[in-house]
Amino acid sequence: MTEAARRLHGLDPRLKLGWALAAGWFIWRGGAFGLAAWIVALSILAVFLRPFWRGMSGIWRSGVLFALFWGVLKAGLLWLDGMLFPDILEQASLLTMRLFALVLLGLTLALSTPPRQCGLALSWTGRPLLGRRSWEPALALTLMIHFLPQCWRVMSVVRRSLEQRCRRVPFLRRWTLFASAVLRALGRRTWEQTLAVASRGLDEPEAWVAGFAPPDRSWLKAAMLLALLGALSFL
To answer: Which tens digits make up the pLDDT trace of 60-80?
Structure first.
């Protein structure tokens, strides 16, 4: 594990969660130059976090395809509305860049922060507003972050299995088998996850109370980086 990856992984989860929320707002409001800056910065962070990828390289490709799909769809809809080609290209490109930057942001947060730490940070943040019930959204966020990579792995395994064993099966039939196999596998994983939550006592408010250290220099450095990228977003 590299020193950069270790430092990013060891940062206060409250800092990373708050930074990601603010960054998401800047990304969605930013222009082309700012979005390019965000993509470069987040790509560098993702490279630093490479030791934590753990076979998740396919998710990056899916993120690119996801952003491109919606960009092309928006371009098609604008073309049907009769918009001029330069305007279509500008708006579709902006949407593609925004979505890809948000995908990078979510993945870097997930790679740098364990799901449990994200949940504890959210519970701590929401306690002044929600009181003892702040553990409920914290548990939901933890399960979502933990479950999404598992969904990806399940779909990848099922897809490879169908490609090897069902090559001569018609396309529609293959997709029916794919959907049923994925649902069965995810149903089993969901049950196992429910048992794990209950056995570890994570469905109780006491499990989501954590003592965090006071802010240190890393908070100032993160704020400076956020301010710089935020300013670039509006150029």
So the answer is: 777 888 899 999 999 999 998
Q: CB atoms < 10 A from the CB of 11, how many? A: 18
Is this structure's pTM higher than 0.90? no
Record the tokens describing residue 46, joined without a space: 């993702």
The helix or strand, by DSSP H or E, that contains position 162, with its residue range, turns out to be helix 135-165
AA identity, residue 88: I
CA atoms within 13 A on the CB side of 140: 5
Q: Are 111 and 49 in contact (CB under 8 A)?
A: yes
Q: In the chain, what is the straight-line distance between the N-terminal and C-terminal CA atoms, in Å?
A: 36
Q: Residue 114: which of 155, 82, 142 has the closest Cα? A: 142
In sequence order, what are the residues at sequence separation of 6 or more whose Cβ sits closer than 8 angstroms to the Cβ of residue 27? 35, 38, 98, 101, 102, 105, 233
Can you give the C-alpha Rg of the chain in angstroms? 21
Coil, helix or strand at residue 31:
coil
Residue 30: strand, helix, or coil: coil
With CA atoms as reference, report the closest residue to 123 among 113, 138, 110.
138
Confidence of residue 143 (pLDDT cuts 50, 70, 90): confident
Specify the residue for token string 């030791």: 51
CA atoms of 18 and 121, how far apart (whole Å): 9
Question: How many alpha carbons fall within 13 Å on the CB side of residue 181?
Answer: 16
- Mean pLDDT calculated for residue range 157-164: 80
| Cα distances (Å, whole numbers) of residue 127 to 37, 109, 138, 232 | 34, 22, 10, 33
